[in-house]
Design a protein that fits this description.
Blueprint lengths: L4 E5 L6 H15 L5 E5 L5 H8 L4 E5 L16 H7 L3 E4 L2 H6 L4 H13 L3 E6 L3 H5 L3 H12 L5 H4 L3 E4 L13 H19 L1 H6 L1 E5 L7 H5 L6 E4 L6 H8 L3
Parallel strand pairs: 1-2, 1-8, 2-3, 3-4, 4-5, 5-6, 6-7, 7-8
Helix pairs in contact: 1-2, 1-12, 5-7, 7-9
Bound molecules: 2-phosphoglycolic acid.
The site of 2-phosphoglycolic acid has 13 residues, from strand 8.
Length: 249
């Protein structure tokens, strides 16, 4: 089995002062982790996060970036701005962005390409809603999100991409997918990537599970054959809980 990639998605939480306190607490707790550790923090916390994690094993990510390098896009942040700060990763296409901010497979693709061109490593989120799952459309939705959302992503670029399978019904709800549900969906997604990029590339691709993962359920999920890590929201805001997930595998 591969090592895991454990990423915290802080969402719109933590002022700079709060972020600094959390990172200082986290650094020693995950220092001997064998898994990759990433924290994806609000834009205003990025500089502090980069400085406080320098020389540690914690990698820093943002939660979005624009598809253009500069221009009249009030309120947006360009990938090169993130790179210059020392940011390594960026979450793209989170379901909250798709639901509340009009993100589509096309904008996800554009942002992913721009992030890759700037040298960032995108964490691209996909996942079905409850209605889609219940009406038997899960596979169709996941297939569409991969085929549209990765349309122009080359095999070489895919090596720098992490995918997060986050069933929308499990995000922030306390309802976690069962170990088997998570593994089955990720296996399905891997198959879709295999059709496009070949089996070896699909096997090498990291596909995380996200949605109410916590220190209690992480071990079961992370020990499944196809679950290559986790994207963790709520539980990543408490150092001890996030560290427990980092060490769960
Ligand atoms: P959650 O969020 O762990 O709070 O469910 C996961 C995510 O949205 O990435």
């Amino acid at each position: 089995m591969k090592n895991k990639i454990i990423a915290g998605n802080w969402k719109m939480n933590k002022t700079r002062a709060e972020a600094e306190a959390l990172i200082k607490e986290l650094v020693p707790l995950v220092a001997d982790a064998r898994n990759t550790v990433i924290i994806c923090v609000p834009f205003t916390d990025l500089q502090s996060a980069v400085e406080l994690t320098r020389g540690t094993n914690i990698h820093v990510g943002a939660q979005n970036c624009h598809w253009k390098e500069s221009g009249a896009f009030t309120g947006e942040i360009a990938p090169s701005m993130l790179r210059e700060l020392g940011v390594e990763y960026v979450v793209i296409g989170h379901s909250e962005r798709r639901t509340y901010f009009g993100e589509t497979d096309a904008t996800v693709l554009a942002r992913t390409k721009a992030a890759l061109n700037a040298g960032l490593k995108p964490i691209v989120c996909i996942g079905e809603t409850l209605a889609e799952r219940q009406s038997g459309k899960m596979e169709e939705v996941l297939t569409r999100q991969v085929s549209e959302g990765f349309k122009d992503v080359t095999a070489e670029e895919l090596q720098r991409v992490t995918v997060a399978y986050e069933p929308v019904w499990a995000i922030g709800t306390g309802v976690t997918a069962t170990d088997e549900q998570a593994n089955d969906a990720i296996k399905y997604i891997r198959g879709v990537f295999a059709e496009k990029y070949g089996k070896a590339a699909a096997e090498a691709l990291y596909i995380q599970y996200g949605g109410s993962m916590n220190d209690g359920n992480a071990k079961g999920l992370l020990n499944m054959s196809d679950v290559d890590g986790g994207l963790i929201g709520g539980a990543s805001l408490v150092a001890s809980k996030f560290a427990a997930i980092v060490h769960a595998h």
